[in-house]
Automatic annotation (TrEMBL):
Protein family: Belongs to the LysR transcriptional regulatory family.
Native source organism of the sequence: Ramlibacter albus
Keywords linked to the UniProt accession: DNA-binding, Transcription, Transcription regulation
Record-given protein name: LysR family transcriptional regulator
One Pfam family it belongs to: HTH_1
Record's keyword annotation contains Transcription: yes
Family matches, as InterPro entries: LysR_HTH_N, LysR_subst-bd, WH-like_DNA-bd_sf, WH_DNA-bd_sf
HTH lysR-type domain mapped to chain residues: 1-58
Length: 292
């Protein structure tokens, strides 16, 4: 039993006519009639009889019709899955990464994702929070990984990946190194390296001011690499997200009283259909175990 025979059978049933079924299937009437006759021979009986000018199903035809219709639908579904699989083997995916989010944790996930889905051609581009949201809206990127601060507009949907505490980063030999954990009051009057791009900066500054803690900035920069370099050079301490620290030469202490943390989110445009590669990425990133 061939799919072509089944398609011709279904076309004759839809139109009630061999000639109109031939027009739909773009085949000659002798070829279509022969295919239906061959199908009847395989199932062991006639599938159509004529009522007036119209061909209708025989009892045998009505009996096997659902199974034959399902066979064609299954073949079409299999073909669609195969085409999607083929596309996914060469599927581009553009990911935006907020500049203040370090690569340590994200890189481990991307490595695992690439091993499982080698056909997804992933491009990672960085940008500020607002830049990435703009690029999501224009379709320039498929997904973005951003901080939960500031709050997302309603036009976007998000999946929480993990929470990230802030720590105090110091060079070797710094006085704060004698502490196991650092309270905000402990940094009062200490030289400070100011991360201008930090989305939590205003909140930390406000809490410090309320607590009467003086932060003396010896250096300011929007670049994370410069912040780490200046701390390592001894210009002062810095508040940094724990998983954003790249330099192994820097020491860190938990920030307590008050603790500060942010959520890291995977974001795209609410209601917009995701590409097969983007769907797969979101499914895997939601199921990923984010080790401490």
């Amino acid at each position: 039993m061939e799919l072509q025979q089944i398609r011709y059978f279904l076309a004759v049933h839809r139109h009630g006519s061999f000639s109109r079924a031939c027009d739909e299937c773009e085949v000659s009437q002798p070829a279509l009639t022969a295919a239906v006759k061959k199908l009847e021979g395989e199932v062991g009986g006639e599938l159509f009889h004529r009522e007036g000018k119209k061909l209708v199903l025989t009892p045998l035809g009505r009996l096997i019709y659902p199974a034959l219709e399902q066979a064609v639908a299954g073949a079409q579904s299999a073909r669609s899955l195969a085409e999607n699989f083929k596309l996914l083997r060469q599927a581009p995916l553009k990911l935006g990464l907020q500049t203040t989010i370090g690569p340590t944790r994200i890189a481990s996930f991307l490595s695992a994702f690439h091993r499982r889905q080698p056909g997804v051609e992933l491009t990672v581009e960085d940008g500020s929070f607002s830049q990435l949201l703009d690029r999501l809206e224009t379709g320039d990127i498929d997904l973005a990984v951003v901080s939960s601060a500031p709050q997302l507009p309603d036009a976007f949907r998000s999946e929480k990946l993990y929470s990230e505490p802030y720590v105090v980063v110091i060079p070797a030999g710094h006085p704060l190194g004698r502490l196991q954990q650092v309270r905000l009051a402990d940094v009062n009057g200490e030289a400070y390296v100011d991360r201008l791009a930090c989305e939590m900066r205003e909140a930390v500054m406000a809490v410090s001011q309320q607590a009467g803690v003086s932060l003396y900035a010896t250096f300011r920069s929007e670049r994370e690499d410069w912040i780490e370099a200046m701390v390592q050079a001894g210009l002062g301490f810095a508040f940094m997200p724990k998983y954003s620290i790249r330099s192994a030469a820097l020491h860190q202490r938990p920030l307590v009283d008050p603790p500060v943390a942010r959520d890291v989110l995977a974001v795209d445009v609410r209601g917009r259909a995701r590409s097969p590669a983007a769907k797969l990425f979101v499914e895997e990133i939601k199921g990923h175990t984010w080790a401490a």
